[in-house]
Amino acid sequence: MESLFTDRNFTKGHQRLADYISKHMDDIAFMVEEDLAHACQVSISTVSRFWAEVGAKNLKEFKQRVKDEVLLSPSRKLQSAFDKASAGTGAAANVLATAEYLRQSADRLEQAEFERAAGLLGTAGTVYIYGPGSAESLTALMDFRLTRFGVPVRRLARGGHELFDQIIHVQKQDAIVIFGFVSESPEMAVLLDFAKERGCRTLLMTDLVVSGMLGKADVLLYTARGEQWEFHSMVAPVAMIEALIVAVGKLREEQALHNGEELHRLRRQYQKLLPKKV
Fold first, then answer.
1. Where do the DSSP E strands lie in 63-218?
2. Phi, psi values for residue 163, rounded to 5°
3. Is residue 37 situated within a structural domain?
4. What's the Cα-to-Cα distance from 51 to each of 24, 30, 33, rounded to whole Å?
5. What distances in angstroms separate CA 159 from CA 12, 26, 220, one per listed residue?
6. CA angle 159-237-88, nearest 5°?
7. Are residues 63 and 105 in the same domain?
8. Is residue 14 classed as helix, strand or coil in its secondary structure?
9. Which residue ranges does the record assign to the HTH rpiR-type domain (predicted)?
10. Which band of pLDDT confidence, cut at 50, 70 and 90, is reported for residue 164?
11. 239, 203: one domain
12. HSE-CB for 225 with a 13 A CA cutoff
């Protein structure tokens, strides 16, 4: 947040505000303009003019920026993980703590929606998967598992114009899987809108409870990853993917079993040339 206050020619009153806010960042969310005016010994009008100086419309917008840039910063999330690790509970307790994310995800899981998700994956012509950042690991896992069952899979570029070169091949019978965590990116907005235009189905896996994109997807699965200010866990999303894969395998049982037998045969036939790594 300090970057908002650098290289600016503040008046003395605004300098007081910038200094106070920098030192009391965690308190800003609970303050109104009158509180800031009293704390900095300036007028309310001086406080009101300050927001434009730092590129915000008003105090409300500035508070949102504090939340986004400070409370949700990678360093703050890491600090929350470090604090838990140093709490003296031990590594085993920290591992077991992630079970709470599984419980939260299970509590919100609707069987009908889960079955729709499995059906979407199991019957799609091609499954296109989009997962930016840390979610890229989830796209790799889903790709690996579905491919083994004979489901055609294509992973989409994480962003930019490369996305267009890939989605032009999407057909009505295909499906797009989106791992949408934290917020709706421009790429996610494009994919959801394009899917409606093309007539293909979409599956959104998210940890958001409130978001404009929740109503845009055909199928929605919630997976808890921790509070916004915490270091986010991928335990629940991985568990959800694994459960989906089993359900898809059941839907494609004949082909899944055939592919499994063929895989076993190939491993035995070429084990001397390509031995299985331990």
1. 127-130, 153-155, 175-180, 201-206
2. -60, -40
3. yes
4. 16, 17, 11
5. 43, 33, 22
6. 115
7. no
8. helix
9. 1-73
10. very high
11. yes
12. 24
Give the highest mean pLDDT range of 58-67, 148-157, 182-191. Answer: 148-157
Q: CA-CA-CA-CA torsion for 256, 261, 263, 267, nearest 10 degrees?
A: 160
The pLDDT of residue 2 is above 50: no
Query: Which residue has tokens 């309310």?
Result: 44
Supply 209's token pair.
């409870």
| Per-residue model confidence as pLDDT tens digits over 234-265 | 999 999 999 999 999 888 777 778 888 888 88
Neighbour count for residue 198 (Cβ, 10 Å) = 15
Q: Is residue 6 part of a domain?
A: yes
10 Å CB burial of residue 15 (0-12, 13-18, 19+) is: middle
Residue-range definition of the domain harbouring residue 110: 99-252
Q: Do 111 and 238 belong together in one domain?
A: yes
Asked whether the beta carbons of 263 and 148 are under 8 A apart, the reply is yes
**Are the C-beta atoms of residues 177 and 128 closer than 8 Å to each other?**
yes
Cβ atoms of 120 and 218 within 8 Å: the answer is yes
Q: Within its chain, how far is the Cα of 199 from the centroid?
A: 25
Check whether residue 45 and residue 123 sit in a common domain: no
Greatest mean pLDDT among 30-34, 95-99, 110-114, 263-267:
110-114
Is residue 57 a contact partner of residue 65, using CB atoms and an 8 Å limit?
Answer: no
pLDDT digits (tens, 9 = 90+) for 17-70: 887 887 777 778 788 999 999 999 999 999 999 998 888 889 988 888 776 665
Name the CA radius of gyration of the chain, rounded.
24
217 secondary structure, DSSP code: S
Please report the DSSP string for 39-107 in residue order. HHT--HHHHHHHHHHTT-SSHHHHHHHHIIIIITSHHHHHHHHHHHHTTSS-HHHHHHHTHHHHHHHHH
